[in-house]
Amino acid sequence: MKQYPIILLLFLLMLSCKEENKSRPEAEIKKEIAGVFDAYVNQLNTQGLKGIDSYFSKDDRFYWVEDGLLQYPDRAALLEGIEAFYPSVRSVHMTVSGINIHVIDDNTATLFSLYKQDFVLNTGYSFHLEGAFTILLTPEDDSWKFLIGHSSVKKPRDTDQ
Q1: pLDDT value at position 13?
Q2: Strands, sheet with 89-105, edge to edge from the N-terminal-most edge strand
Q3: Whole-angstrom Cα distance, residue 33 to residue 23?
């Protein structure tokens, strides 16, 4: 008779500790992120830098690194940089390849991509960048946003060594 309260207690504990599996299918998350990144690239190619702020998280943990240096410690600094550069840009064209999305959990994923980007300034001066992105994404406002980013530009290697 003393076993019944213990068994009942164990049963109640098991029910209260049961984890709900709310995990979404990885393929679904990857498809969403690929869509967001495609839209980001399309936005750059059709509207330039105008409006790309919607892809960057409003989370206080946001930052962006360029070539290993903390370039933008927060979202406001990044947007200030874009706003300062935008008036001088006539056009931007970016192509991406080698995209690799890794889902860590329902709220965290990484994206790696190679890129080639051509800028034409209002002065007529143009330049080309080629490199790689690594981006940590998180869901926010019903979409995936860039929380932490790193972009590197391919540099010539010294072949005399």
Answers
A1: 46
A2: 69-72, 63-66, 143-153, 126-140, 108-121, 89-105
A3: 16
For residue 116, the enclosing domain spans 24-153
Q: Give the pair of three-digit tokens for residue 29.
A: 């998350």
Percent helix, percent strand, percent coil in the chain, to nearest 5: 35, 40, 25
For position 18, what pLDDT does the model report? Answer: 47
Q: How far is CA 47 from CA 39, 44, 93, 119, 158, in A?
A: 11, 6, 10, 13, 37
Indicate which CATH number applies to the domain containing 52.
Answer: 3.10.450.50
Is the residue at 67 inside a domain?
A: yes
Amino acid at 83: E
| pTM for this prediction | 0.81
Domain membership flag for residue 4: no
125 backbone dihedrals φ, ψ, rounded to 5°: -65, 140
93, β-bridge pairs: 118
Domains contained in the chain, number: 1
Task: Report if residue 105 sits inside a domain.
Answer: yes
CA distance 133 to 153: 9
Q: Is there a domain that residue 160 lies in?
A: no
What's 143's DSSP letter?
Answer: E
Mean pLDDT of the chain: 88
